[in-house]
Structures are given as C-alpha cells and as structure tokens.
Amino acid sequence: MVKHHHKTVLCIGNDPVSLNLRCSLLKQHGWNAISSGSGHEGVILFGKEVVDGVVIDLDDDGAEAALITGELKRLRPARAVIILVTDASKLANGATQQANSVVMKSEEARELIGSLEGLFPAT
Predict the structure, then answer these.
(1) Residue 101 region, left (φ>0) first, then alpha (ψ -120 to 50), else beta?
(2) Is 87 contained in some domain?
(3) Average pLDDT in the chain
(4) At what angle do helices 63-75 and 39-48 cross, to 10 degrees?
(5) What's the pLDDT at 19?
C-alpha cells in the first residue's frame, strides 16, 4: 500500500532521465514531486512553490550543490535538503555541510525513500 505523505519534494538535477526516474520513484511512494533541470531554475521554483524538501543531484564535484543548498537554506532554513552523490570522498570542500542528508546514488532507491520518511513521517 502506498503511503500518502502529503509533502512536496523538489528534485533538482541536470540529467533529464535521472530526474524523471527520481520523480516517478517518489510519486510511487506517495510523495508529490516537482522537478527542475538546473540549480538556478530550482532556486526560482523553491521561492515560488510550497516545497517541503529538496533532493539535489547535480553532476559535478559538489560545488554547485553546495551553492544551491546554501541559497535554499538562506531562503528557508528549516527546509530539508538531501544531496545525492556518486562518491562522497570526491565532493568539493563544504558541499554537504548544510545538507540534512547525503545519499549515495548507488543506494538511492532504498536510502532516498528512507531519508525522506525519516524527515517527514506519513500522516
């Protein structure tokens, strides 16, 4: 049975295929999901939409993820931000300091849902 979280997650990513799959995964698990194809666009959507949490997956060394996370936290400090990474040891310095959670992409399907459920229990 699908849990209904009644929470909206903004997915920010620069790979359209992964972004669509991630949003589909979240919707299958009872989340509302909206997507953004870039960090800049994501910050704009975050300012306009009612968003409970954010998942960031930007293919770089984490520098852009760190900047985007900092901006999101500046706008709404209480909002949860999860950063997806391929290799945490190669992230830019400080890329994950402001994030609520860091999830390895290889564990995404299981860990992402678990992280979100931990941050936002079903009602």
Answers:
(1) beta
(2) yes
(3) 84
(4) 10
(5) 94
Instruction: Convert 85-106 to b/e letters by CB count within 10 Å (16 or more is b).
Output: beeeeebeeebbebbbbbbeee
- pTM value is 0.83
Is 3 part of a structural domain of the chain? Answer: no
Distance CA 120, CA 27 (A): 15
Number of domains in the chain: 1
CA distance to 21, 44, 57, 84, per residue, from 112 (Å)? 13, 23, 12, 9
Q: Please give the sequence-ordered ranges of beta strands (E in DSSP) within the chain, or none if there are none.
A: 8-13, 32-36, 53-57, 80-85, 101-104
Amino acid at 119: L
User: Rounded to the nearest 5 degrees, what angle is found at the Cα of 116, between the Cα atoms of 79 and 5?
Assistant: 90
Dig out the tokens for 5 from the structure.
Answer: 């979280």
| 2 is a domain residue | no
CATH number of the domain that 90 lies in?
3.40.50.2300
pLDDT in tens, 92-113: 666 667 888 887 777 766 777 7
